[in-house]
Backbone:
């Protein structure tokens, strides 16, 4: 397509745009990008980590409330934990549990970002934990029970 010098500037711009559009339409498609992990795989990972967290926090035996602690679990889409679990420092320092919880939260945040999840953005405060019948439990009447697995 040859542009005539007698064409006005708007006509020349329109013709150039049309030419550019036609040549870009013939361009080869972009190379496929490797697909992110499927939601099913991410959910399986989060579910597996959740089971490991439950196992790691199952031994919540205590002699006094000073051995009882809470740990924020899950990850709300806009930040913060979904809920809390009680755990005991009578047997260990909880390092393994804390690592599992961090991995679980990271898996949930990745899934939420991938699926464009949103949440209420409400703040879930730690209810605290106490030793009752030689077992660490969440303090009654406060928010922080185990999360619903989504």
Residues:
């Amino acid at each position: 397509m040859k542009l005539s010098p007698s064409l006005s500037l708007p006509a020349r711009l329109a013709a150039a745009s049309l030419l550019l559009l036609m040549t870009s339409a013939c361009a080869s498609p972009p190379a496929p990008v490797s697909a992110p992990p499927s939601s099913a795989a991410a959910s399986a990972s989060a579910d597996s980590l959740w089971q490991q967290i439950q196992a790691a926090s199952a031994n919540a035996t205590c002699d006094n409330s000073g051995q009882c602690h809470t740990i924020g679990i899950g990850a709300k889409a806009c930040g913060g934990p979904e809920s809390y679990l009680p755990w005991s420092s009578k047997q260990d320092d909880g390092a393994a549990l804390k690592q599992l919880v961090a991995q679980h939260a990271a898996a949930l945040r990745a899934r939420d970002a991938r699926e464009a999840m949103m949440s209420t953005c409400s703040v879930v405060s730690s209810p605290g934990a106490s030793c009752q019948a030689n077992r660490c439990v969440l303090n009654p009447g406060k928010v922080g029970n185990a999360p619903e697995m989504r």
